[in-house]
Structure to design on (967 residues):
């Protein structure tokens, strides 16, 4: 038999214990695991620091970091000390142990088991509660910074006469401290009670007293602290009534004290505060009296008072005093709510005027009257027939150039000077960037996706009020590289709405820039200073871990000068450098001083404005566009606010990624508070250049919030508000099947009290539950005027009805002549798509205009087919806007211009190749026009378009190279 115990023949091996080599291996693996976890945490921290430093906002990173660290350690230490001291004190106050009962004998085993580890157990428990409390406190960094940096509003609430800053900045912090105090008191009470029980200070089944005198005194003090905190809570609840939400069936949610709050809850809270203070003193008195009798009586009295005074009495007041005469009782308090809500949302200066809604002009009007009205229609608005939410596929088809470029689903509307027109006159322009689309890269791999295809190229813009005779946009900036009315500018787009992945640029690997006319791909190397340098191997290792991409660490495509670009959408860049702002859902591009700048609207918000009604931003900013398009986001989905200001205008350079924040609202106390907390991050308003100012506009999401509030708060009389008889609603989009609200529209127009057109943002209202029109709303969106931000509401009379958007669309769809025309347009597997239904006030009436687009055959993009115009009961459905207006008013407009055509008969060139190519182009153009009339025949039209492009290309080549190439 072998010697299993060891001996001279070999070493002795102990059963069940790993060998030294195995132990060494396990220890090594453990150390590596710990180091790996530590480096992973370090990588996240380090890459964040490097990114903030690269965008020159390192102060934001350090301010937030140190604030979180400070709150974590202070409140974590406070909680740990509080719990630890009470456990130590309970252990110190333990009675002499004598196992006289079965209960104590059973507990004695636990006491003996933990005796060797008491210190470690104490440290573990206190560390655990400290970590949890510290992590919770660190999440309150915004609350702390607002409290410590808060500036006054210089407005006082009508009930307590305290500055609004108390409710916006101070009360949230006091509530956090109160919640922390309650948590500490409860944890200390539980920990002390368990320790007293474990060591015999509390007895459940043992004979004799249930608690020692020491345990009674200790726990009574803790209960007294808890009740004292409850007294503080009652006192703060008094002020909380000013920001408490209420509900009226007639008028929906609103905030602030109501009659029952001021006359029942407020005195009840004061009484309960006094009772709680007395009850707390009785608990403290047990240190001397050593009896629970009085504290228990006091606590029972407090609970009973809370039920009777805090619950039953207000219900009686509501039932027998308020309900029999609600309007008279509530009117003064509702009036406070009306005033505060209108101020908090910036709608207090909204100008509401009565509007006829029907034009007095009739069929019997004179030719001069009709001509005047037709001229007024041209002056009233520059009606936009290019819908930015429809024509993106047309931009894609005509200007994509390469599959690795793409345009956003929703284009934007801006203003640019009209070339060749009136000096200084601006025109509404539909604009989009040719951004990078990695789905269109010829072959997707790591090098192509992150090194070669790194950026988009160029702006594409078109007139918003015109289309050519084929229904295509009239481009003012097009081709690749882009050229046109915008002049010379940096066209590379490294930062954009569709750029959601990282790129590594500036190193040995060249990037694809764009394709030249001869088909060759031009390359470039990023020359900006954006992004983080990867020369440092520590940086490369950190990013390899942070992005879970090991190739970053060892790839030969990364070398000297390589920089990594990420966080590349304008919205996420602004959110990162200003985490205290709420960002608008739609950033838009503009060419400013030779650079493409993304313009981002940002908001300061609060949920603590007294008497102001709350709204959920995600709900009020949702419309038919956010419901159907992923790239048009809603704002802060679940964020409830009752104060909002467009306080900051931000820009993001499309090439360098530079972020700049500008103070827009110079009076906003919330912004001033954040500027104190983050000094130097927001530039003064005077730093905005004139070129940039020309492209700023009133933000859509703020407008949507304001219009939602104005459905109820357009009234200023409390009695009318309470009846609910004047409640409006935002109509559903009549051209969209999502059942969501109609989006607001930008267009240049003038309201009845304006002398000339102004770039505006508009919407309509209908009565609650009905489809006829209640009101039309517009806000001046041109910052170059003194009226910027002025809200005008035209309220239609209730004695007569005017058709709302849904009714206009329904009437349009039901007309036999229009239905027949649409049937012809949709022949051959074609379909129609309706554009924005624009509303324009005109001579006491309302003019509706809607472009209708046609898609069909091989053409998978919309072309303008017809234009609908409705005014004063008359409807026209014509090829162009001018033709439709002429038909509606019965007279030809003086400004009617023919649509721009795709080509014209050229003069002789002397070059037979060029002349032949141009003749072929003319034939192809004529064939395309005929195809539109025949059916339309989209297959024939597509073939004609291809022939036209080929012919024009041959003409261009022959003109530049001489007579060397024949078609």
């Amino acid at each position: 038999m072998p010697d299993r115990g060891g001996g001279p023949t070999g070493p002795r091996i102990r059963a069940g214990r790993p060998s030294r080599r195995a132990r060494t291996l396990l220890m090594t693996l453990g150390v590596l695991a710990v180091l790996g976890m530590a480096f992973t945490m370090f990588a996240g921290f380090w890459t964040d620091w490097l990114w903030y430093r690269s965008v020159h906002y390192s102060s934001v990173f350090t301010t937030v970091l140190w604030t979180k660290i400070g709150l974590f350690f202070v409140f974590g230490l406070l909680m740990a000390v509080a719990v630890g001291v009470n456990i130590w004190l309970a252990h110190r106050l333990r009675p002499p142990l004598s196992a006289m009962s079965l209960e104590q004998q059973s507990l004695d085993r636990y006491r003996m088991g933990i005796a060797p580890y008491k210190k470690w157990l104490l440290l573990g428990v206190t560390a655990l509660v400290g970590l949890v409390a510290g992590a919770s406190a660190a999440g309150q960094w915004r609350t702390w910074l607002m409290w410590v940096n808060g500036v006054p509003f210089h407005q006082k609430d009508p009930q307590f006469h305290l500055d609004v800053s108390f409710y916006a900045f101070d009360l949230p912090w006091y509530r956090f401290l109160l919640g922390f105090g309650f948590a500490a008191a409860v944890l200390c009470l539980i920990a002390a009670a368990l320790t007293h029980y474990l060591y015999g200070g509390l007895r459940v089944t043992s004979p004799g007293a249930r608690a020692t005198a020491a345990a009674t005194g200790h726990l009574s003090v803790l209960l007294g602290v808890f009740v004292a905190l409850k007294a503080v809570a009652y006192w703060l609840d008094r002020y909380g009534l000013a920001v408490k939400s209420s509900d009226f069936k007639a008028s929906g949610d609103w905030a602030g004290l109501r009659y029952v709050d001021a006359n029942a809850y407020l005195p009840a809270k004061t009484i309960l505060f006094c009772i709680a203070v007395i009850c707390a003193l009785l608990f403290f008195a047990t240190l001397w009296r050593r009896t629970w009798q009085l504290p228990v009586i006091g606590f029972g009295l407090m609970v009973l008072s809370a039920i009777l005074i805090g619950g039953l009495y207000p219900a009686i007041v509501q039932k027998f005093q308020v309900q029999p005469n609600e309007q008279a009782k509530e009117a003064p308090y509702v009036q406070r709510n009306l005033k505060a809500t209108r101020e908090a949302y910036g709608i207090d200066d909204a100008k509401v005027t009565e509007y006829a809604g029907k034009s007095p002009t009739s069929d019997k009007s004179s030719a001069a009257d009709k001509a005047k009205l037709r001229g007024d229609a041209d002056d009233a608005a520059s009606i936009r027939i290019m819908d930015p939410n429809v024509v993106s596929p047309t931009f894609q088809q005509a200007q994509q150039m390469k599959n690795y470029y793409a345009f956003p689903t929703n284009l934007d509307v801006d203003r640019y000077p009209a070339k060749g027109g009136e000096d200084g006159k601006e025109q509404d322009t539909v604009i989009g960037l040719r951004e990078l689309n990695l789905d269109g890269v010829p072959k997707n791999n790591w090098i192509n996706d992150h090194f070669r295809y790194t950026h988009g190229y160029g702006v594409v813009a078109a007139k918003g009020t015109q289309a050519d005779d084929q229904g295509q946009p009239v481009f003012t900036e097009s081709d690749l590289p882009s050229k046109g009315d915008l002049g010379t500018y940096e066209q590379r787009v490294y930062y954009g709405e569709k750029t959601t992945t990282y790129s590594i640029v500036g190193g040995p690997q060249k990037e694809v820039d764009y394709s030249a006319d001869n088909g060759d791909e031009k390359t470039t190397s990023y020359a900006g200073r954006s992004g983080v340098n990867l020369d440092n191997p520590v940086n490369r290792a950190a990013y390899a871990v942070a992005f879970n991409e090991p190739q970053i660490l060892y790839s030969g495509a990364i070398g000297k000068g390589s920089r990594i670009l990420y966080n590349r959408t304008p919205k996420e860049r602004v959110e990162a450098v200003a985490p205290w702002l709420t960002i608008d859902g739609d950033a838009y591009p503009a060419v400013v001083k030779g650079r493409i700048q993304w313009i981002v609207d940002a908001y300061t918000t609060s949920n603590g404005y007294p008497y102001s009604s709350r709204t959920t931003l995600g709900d009020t900013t949702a419309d038919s566009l956010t419901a159907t398009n992923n790239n048009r986001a809603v704002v802060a989905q679940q964020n409830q606010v009752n104060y909002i200001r467009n306080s900051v205008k931000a820009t993001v350079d499309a090439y360098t990624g530079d972020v700049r924040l500008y103070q827009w609202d110079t009076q906003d106390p919330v912004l001033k508070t954040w500027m104190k907390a983050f000094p130097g991050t927001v530039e003064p308003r005077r730093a905005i250049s004139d070129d940039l100012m020309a492209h700023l506009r009133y933000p859509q999401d703020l407008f949507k919030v304001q219009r939602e509030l104005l459905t109820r708060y357009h009234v200023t009389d409390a009695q009318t508000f309470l009846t609910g008889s004047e409640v409006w609603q935002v109509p559903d989009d009549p051209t969209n099947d999502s059942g969501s609200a109609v989006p607001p529209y930008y267009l240049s127009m003038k309201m009845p009290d304006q002398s000339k057109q102004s770039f505006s943002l508009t919407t309509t209202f209908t009565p609650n539950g009905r489809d006829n029109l209640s009101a039309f709303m517009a806000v001046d969106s041109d910052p170059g005027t003194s009226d910027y931000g002025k809200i005008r509401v035209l309220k239609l009379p209730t004695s007569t009805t005017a058709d709302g958007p849904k009714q206009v669309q329904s009437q349009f769809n039901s007309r036999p002549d229009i239905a027949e025309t649409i049937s012809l347009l949709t022949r051959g597997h074609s379909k129609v798509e309706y554009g924005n239904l624009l509303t324009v006030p005109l001579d006491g009436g309302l003019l509706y205009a809607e472009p209708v687009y046609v898609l069909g055959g091989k053409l998978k993009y919309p072309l303008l087919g017809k234009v609908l115009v409705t005014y004063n009961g008359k409807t026209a459905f014509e090829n162009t806007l001018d033709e439709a207006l002429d038909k509606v008013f019965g007279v030809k407009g003086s400004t009617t211009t023919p649509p721009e055509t795709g080509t014209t008969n050229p003069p002789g060139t002397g070059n037979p190749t060029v002349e032949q190519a141009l003749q072929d182009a003319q034939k192809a153009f004529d064939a395309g026009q005929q195809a539109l009339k025949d059916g339309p025949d989209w297959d024939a039209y597509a073939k004609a378009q291809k022939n036209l492009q080929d012919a024009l290309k041959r003409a261009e080549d022959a003109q530049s190279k001489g007579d060397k190439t024949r078609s």
Observations:
- Residues 1-15, 902-910, 962-967 have pLDDT under 50 and may be disordered.
- DSSP finds 27 helices and 36 strands in the chain.
- Residues 912-961 form one domain.
- The longest strand covers residues 859-871.
